Structures are given as structure tokens and as C-alpha cells.
Amino acid sequence: MSSLHHRHLAVSPEWLALYYRHPLELTHGEGRHVWDADGNRYLDFFGGILTTMTAHALPEVTKAVSEQAARIIHSSTLYLNRPMIELAERVASLSGIPDARVFFTTSGTEANDTALLLATTYRRSNQILAMRNSYHGRSFSAVSITGNNAWSPTSLSPLQTLYVHGGVRTRGPYAHLSDEEFTAACVADLEDLLGHTRAPAALIAEPIQGVGGFTSPPDGLYGAFREVLNRHGVLWISDEVQTGWGRSGEHFWGWQAHAQNGPPDILTFAKGIGNGMSIGGVVARAEVMNCLDANSISTFGGSPVTMAAGLANLSYLLEHDLQGNARRVGGLLIERLRAIGATSERVREVRGRGLMIGVELVKPGTDEADPAAAAAVLEAAREGSLLIGKGGGHNTSVLRIAPPLSLAIPEAEEGAEILADALREVG
Question: pTM here?
């Protein structure tokens, strides 16, 4: 055990997870690579949990942060803040929500907390619909709407949460149905559920479930849900913390794959927009955002430094068409991984869109999840100088692959080959 690891264990909670048998201390990064304290170089296919969205040490972002920090680092939302207003204007315009208002937070968890506060206040209801296999953060209220028991340490809750079918396409009671039949069955289940409950405040859903292993429903499912929700006056919250900013390649926001009945009432975001800086936020139409009848501020949300980073990062993303790059390079990477998976009895499915890819592992010859194999492949990939993540529903048996959106084709091919070697090593 390294001395730093020993010190970590002495002062940190036991439940604070670390990757790897011998945890890494990352010291610096550049582009799609990072280095550890021993000087080892790694190809980064996880980006600090989908947070380093464009590139490590992106000059445009580091320059914006440095220049803003030299002027003023902090003021709070009690004062006018030019970088915050400029980023809010851009996010509101990109959101697709009419008459949008934007509130900045410091994390996706806090963004989802805010969305729940808005929805329950607007609807005068503490009942929330959430998806099975979902994850929305680690706070008391966010844990209470998380449909993944590995990340839900308490059953106590300020909310009454009811879980809906549909977030996982290839497992569960509707897995055998066609996409059209799957959607119809999930809509019928939602209709039936609403017939047995008091009026909920909102449905919160990740268009592609992140911690759940990059699972998703057929396109249009949440749009079909929206038709039902509208009849009952129930709001739709789209949790875009992991799916936003073009990572799926096909769309800028995940909700756009389900847009036949309009945009969500509330959209939450975080992670990639700051490229490592702590930015989260909520977008909602004005009547929903303005429903609170008490004062509120944010001490650290909308910080001048983080807003400067977000503006520079978003500009780089749009000017360099990183959404298009995610579509092109991600499409090649998915096909490469599917070809690799076809040669391994451990790979049940390779799924995802753009640069948001899940490789689900099972025990050979069965459909049983294999978290031990996922942990072993994670270790073997690290030995091959590739960093990936893991997740999944009932068991943590999905390899999560989400590199910075500037990933080049040779890097995608290199990472796929390392992962192929890791799968062969595990056997």
C-alpha cells in the first residue's frame, strides 16, 4: 500500500470508493491522456466520470480560468456576474425550452435537488416518478429517487417515489418485445400506475442511464410518456448530467431522441460543461423556475471562474463540432468493440451512442451478470495503460467507456485493442 493510500484510508469514510487494487494518484493530463505519480501514461476513456468533456489541459479553458482568477474569483449570486449571465444566455438558447430560465449549481446532485424542489413546489406534490436502474446523485433527496440499490444507502426519503419500466431495453419483463411493443407496454404500465396514485409532481429520467451501465429505451419512449404526463399535468425532468453537450453524437441533448411531444419542462446538467470545473445547473420554463415564493441564492453556483471555464469550453465544443466527432469516432469505436465482443463468451452486449458506450459482461454460457469479471477487466485495462469505468444495474458488471469528445481515430483503435487484450487476459 502506498503512503498516500494509507493516509487516504486514515481520514476518509469507508464508503468512499476507489478504483483498482492499488489506487492511482493522477498528477497531470494533456489531450486524451493522463499521468500518474510514478510517471505512467494512460489513455483516458473515462474522463473523470464523463467530466473532462473536451480534453485534459485544454489551453482555451486553462487560459480563461487563469485570466478570470486574476481579476476576481468569487462574488456569489448577490451581485451581477457577467460570465454567469453570458453562459446562462447560451445554455438557455441551446436548451430547446421556451422562455427558459437558468440556475447554476456546483454539481449534478445539486442540480437534481433544485429540479425536485421546483417540481414539488410547482405541483404541490411530493410524489416523484423515477426509472428503474436510475441514478441522480448522492444527496438525501437524490438518493431517494435513485433506482439502483448499489447507490441507494437509505430507504428514508422526503419524497414518495414510484419506479417506472422503460430505462433498460434488454433486461426485465419487456425485453423480449419489439421496440414498438416495448414502448407500448411501458406506456401502458405508466398509465396503470397513474391510475393508482395521487397526482405526482414529475417524472425524472436520464435519456441514457449513466451509472446504470449506459442503458436506454427505444427512441421516442419518453416522448410517448410525455403525452400521458401532459394529460395528468405531471412535469418531465430530463437529467442530462451525463448525456448533455453532444456526447451521444446523434443529439446535443438526450431528450431530443424523444422530442415528438416537445422539450422537457425541466432540464438538469453538469459534468462536461465545466471540463473538470464544478458546474451544474437547471433550465426550466419561466413559470416553473419562478414558482418559489421564498428567497434563494447560491454562494458558489455561478462562480466567475467556473463560468469563464464553461464559456470557453462550450465555445470550443461548438466551434470544433465535437458532437460530430463523437458521432463519427464513437460509431467506429462501437463497431470495433462489437467485433471484439463477438469473440468473447463474457460479452453479453455492447451498447451506447457516440462516446457513451457500455460493454456488459456475464458468466460464460449464462445470462448472469459477472461483476468480478468487470473488476478484473478494469485492472487488466489499467495494466495496458487504459482507464475505463464500470457500472450496471443489479450488479456492477458493465464496462463504461466515455472518453473526451475530441478523441482521435488512432486513439479509439488503440483503446479498443487494449480492451480486447484485457478481455482475453480475463478469459
Answer: 0.96
